[in-house]
Every structure is written in C-alpha cells, then in structure tokens.
Amino acid sequence: MSSILIKGARVIDPRSKLDAARDMLIRQGKIARIEKSITAPKARVVRAKDQVVVPGLIDLHCHLRDPGRPDEETIATGSEAAVAGGFTSICCMPNTDPAIDNESIVNYIYKEAARVGLCNVLPVGAITKARAGKEITEFAELQHAGVKAFSDDGDTVADSSVLRHALEYSKAFDVPIFEHALDKELARDGLMNEGLVATRLGLKGSPAIAEELIVARDLLLAGFTGARLHVCHVSTRGAVELIRRAKREGVRVTCETCPHYFYFNDEVLESLDVNFKVNPPIRSEVDRQAIIEGLKDGTIDCIATDHAPHCRAEKELEFANAPYGMIGLETAVSLAVMELINRQKMSWLDVMRKLTVNPAGIIRIPAGCISVGAAADITIIAPDEKWKVSEEQIRSRSKNTPHLNKELVGRVTNVILNGRVKYSLKDGQ
Ligand code: NCD
Ligand code: ZN
Ligand code: ZN
Ligand code: ZN
Q: Model pTM?
C-alpha cells in the first residue's frame, strides 16, 4: 500500500475543531502526519489546493434494497453511490426482502460489502420479526452479528408496548432504537404535507401532527425506560421543539434530518414531480426554517440521506400510487454546501460535525475524526465546483431525484478508506 500525501488543503476536523491549511500524510492505512508542510518523496501526491479535507462522511440512514430489489439498488451500486457522495460508512435500513431480522442476513451484508470493498456498510437490524410490529427480534444475536442500531424504518412501531420492550431490551446492548415517527392513521394516504399547497393542488395531506404525536410518545417512552432513542428524518417544527425540550430534560435522544427537509419546502410539489413524494413529506417554509434552527443549535445531531431508491416503473405511476422516497447519497454534500454553508447559516465545522463525529458517536464506531494514528477515512471536497446532475453520472441504480438536470455547487473529488483511494473524480469521468 503506497503512502498518500494530500497537499495544500483546508483540513477540517469537527471533533478537535481543527480548521486550517495543512498537509496530510497517510501511511499504512492510517493518518501518519498532519503538518503545515510535509514532503514525502515516495508518496502519491493528491493536490488539494482550494479544497476541503474532512473525515470520511457517515450516513446513518440509507436504503440499499439488498436483498430483494436488485433492480433498484444493491450493496455494490449503493456503495458506489456512497463513495461518489463522500460517504465512507453507511447504515442500511432493514426494510429489505427478507428484512434484516436475523444473523444470516447481517452476515450476508457484511460479506457482500467486503467483496465490493468501497465503503463500510453497517446494517441496521429490524426491531420486530419481518418488521411486522409484533414480535421483537433476537437483539443479542443481531448485535453479535454486528448491527449498529435497531429500526422498523418504513413503519412506526405502532404498538407502544412493543416499543417499550424494545427500548428496555436495547439498553442491555447500548444500541439505539431508530424510529420512523409517523402515526399511521393520521398520515394514511397522505401524498404531501397537509397545508395550503396541498389544498390548492387537491392532494391529500399528511399532517405535521402525525409526526409530532409519535415523537412525543417516543420521547416519553425513552425517558421512562432510560434507553437511547434516535428519531429518523425529523421534518417538522413541532418535532424539533419536542426533541429540544426532551434533551434539556435529560432524555437520551438524538435525531437526524435529511437534505430535502432543509433545502425544499412544500411549494416544490406544485411541479407534481413524483420525486418530491417522500415520507415524511417535504414540509412548509416555517418547518424548513425550524429544521435549520435545530441544526444550528444542536437539537438535530445529524444529516442523514434517507437514500430511498425506486425503479422508474414505480415512480412513473400516477402520483397517488407512486412509492415514497428519493435517492440522496450523491447530492447530500452539495445541498449542505449550497443551503447551509454558502448561505452563511452554518460553518464548515458545524455542518461537517453532523456528517462525521456526531453520527459516529450515535452508533459507537471509531470513525469520523482526523487525528494522527486514526484510520485514514478521508473525503475531499471542491467547495466551489459546479456540476450538473445527470442520469449517466448517478452511480445509484435508481435515478429518482428531483435534482436531475439541475446544477449543484460543491463536489466530492476524492474518497479514501483505510488509506486506499476508493473514489477519484478524475478517474471517474
Ligand atoms: C423509504 C423507502 O423507500 O424505503 N421511503 C421514504 O420515503 N423515506 C422508507 C422510509 O424511510 O420511511
Ligand atoms: Zn422512515
Ligand atoms: Zn428510510
Ligand atoms: Zn421501489
């Protein structure tokens, strides 16, 4: 394994709050030196002037459809999309077919991810068998096999007694419960956010209260059990307020939002582009602003993609029958740069914290920081580079993104995992 010398970059490490011009030498898979100027004649040089070097990004929430829907995504294509988006570790959700509810599927995912060898794919185990909401899975077996969290994502754990026992059981393993928080009955058949725009378009709405009701219940249960709750894809002002208050009261809660919740508001649904149909729905401008406030004040810990690939045939169904979800691994960095950094709402350090050290802490993995001796998982970003999203460019097997043919700013140029280059924009195209 040859050494790599990254020259002239702005190195940003949220954990140590480093944000300075540095050279970095990577040797034997690890970060060997971080200094103002390094010369290493034998090393492969990556020139990174005007670029930003950050810890390899970590996504707590994506859908790889493997096993079950290789026409939509596989561990191989999902890993390619991940590194193209700057991610070196991704958590894949268990709403696969079959669900990730036993050891053999966890073993399959690790084996397949290792064969592909592009990024760390960390499975999330189902809370209930077949995600049916009734019988809790064998947490001990799943944790032993390597799951980093438990979730029935795609569905809320509707039965409060089941969730209570799952939370209690999870404490023995110090593994968080990732909850998809949407009241099934209140959200039923909702095609977009309930509100003025939905009324105008004549589309059935899914109200913010559907999310907030479950978040409130879950926070009470988390407080009651003392277990660790992580709320998936937070999208409403009320949910942010509930979580802010619960954190203040000492509840062990963390949460994530997704780029589409801080980048869009529900007016985009006027296009009737079915790629805007996601769960939870894209909310109002008031909600969007509250999400940004939540990111700023630390109520929202992470930015996760909720990368949800769907095949063209499904997304070409009429709006009411199309599935929920948009892909997101390859556009997340650009959206964060454009909306949060370039519009001066947050600093690089604070945005990158939500994509590195914070998610690493939630799933307790030794990643997400840049320091001498640490594994060299590194992402390099050209912050000003413009690029156009095109079908040919998208590495994901599915193309369901509302950003298609749009120009974005901020582009991942290199990704290094354990000291090996896994993605380089130059080689790619
Ligand atoms: C997800 C999917 O397609 O699996 N869809 C979505 O709109 N977010 C499910 C989920 O995350 O709840
Ligand atoms: Zn979900
Ligand atoms: Zn999801
Ligand atoms: Zn689908």
A: 0.98
